Give the backbone structure.
Amino acid sequence: MSNIPADLRFAESHEWAKLEADGTVTVGISDHAQEALGDVVFVELAEVGKVFAAGEAAGVVESVKAASDIYAPVSGEVIAVNEALADSPESLNSDPYGSWIFKLKPSDKAELDKLLDAAGYQAAIGE
Amino acid sequence: MGLRTPLYDLHLALGAKMVDFGGWDMPLHYGSQVEEHHQVRRDCGVFDVSHMTVIDVHGAQATVWLQRLLANDVARLTETGKALYSTMLDEQGKVIDDMIAYRCEDGYRLVVNASTRDKDLAWLNACKGDFDVKIHERPELAILAIQGPEARAKVAELLSAPRAALIRELKPFEGRAEGDWFIARTGYTGEDGLEIIFPAVQAPAFFNDLVGAGIAPSGLGARDTLRLEAGMNLYGQDIDEAHTPLTSNLGWSVAWEPAGRDFIGRSGLLAEIEHGVEQKLVGLVLEERGVLRAHQVVRVAGIGEGEITSGSFSPTLSKSIALARVPMATADRAEVEIRGKWYPVRVVKPTFVRHGKILI
């Protein structure tokens, strides 16, 4: 059984999204995703300033097992990326909810409602 | 449900992530394969390799028969206790399997791959002819590999005085029986260590003792990155029935002398040499971020193309490495296609790390 925090929203592609108090959205990958990937060795981050539509590939997580695209869970502009992942990509394994990958300024907050809640994600991954 | 070794329940109890490997349910890792890799290079770890196939060969003509069957020459094993690495070839010189052969008191012990068990036994039986030999598969034996600079010392502490003494005496590439245990100083990691072949009924207790003594259980994920760093081939990836030892960095394991030893495949290899050996197996290092993987295309400017046979992330080097089969004229640079883009790689000798030291 993987860890699925109740206060986060989830894309079916296993990214988590958190609406912050300042209206930005923080994005990472779920516990289920990191467990399936195995040891993460590289993270390819998007450029700050780039604009993505919801569902567009916005980075790559490379593990010993495979390379996996990270998708923007909602549309928006990248306002920050987690540079610490360059030196410690394994933090995505050890702390998937504490290790953010990028932050978006969302273009339409209503898109968050289209994401799964914790119970919905749990059902989606068959747990 | 796949085949299970006697340690299946213990692997689960230790938190292993299990995967299918050639029809066997085996532990991929117990939390982090990168961590398990580091522990073997720095200290030691224990691998359950009981899925591999143990075949004992007895009889008056065991030696001459194996001299016919194997590309390396068992007559080089001048006394009980010595072991060698060899490929087993078909008439064209193509590789059927690779193995370690140990000379024992009453014959030889062959340890061959799990995935090639049925094929190997069929071949061995087909090649028996009129030779005075008996082949005994030993499925009732388990195999544990304890590998790393501290492996021999830590294992000796846990065993009886005679077994501890044997461990201290063993030189690299030697293996000897002590009671119903067979203890060898061989391995697949490029580190010092032991491979212990012993009755499967004793495996859970001994594995528990090893883990209880602080020896890290290590899975197939770490086993693969360790052997890749050590430049050791994996049958089914770096060697297979489409290739000979001469294009697989295994020319050293073919014993051409004595010239009169007509091993199966000798003429096939000679034909390849006469035609001109066109490819070689080399090491690749990706200096930037990314992971090299099997089947990626290798391009050598002005010369031609090749293919990666095994690739992964090297925890010791902190970069990606690979083994690749490329045109013979390839020098020290090439490019690899990863997800549609070309990346430069360094071409090196296919051994990256030995005894914890980076060689490239």
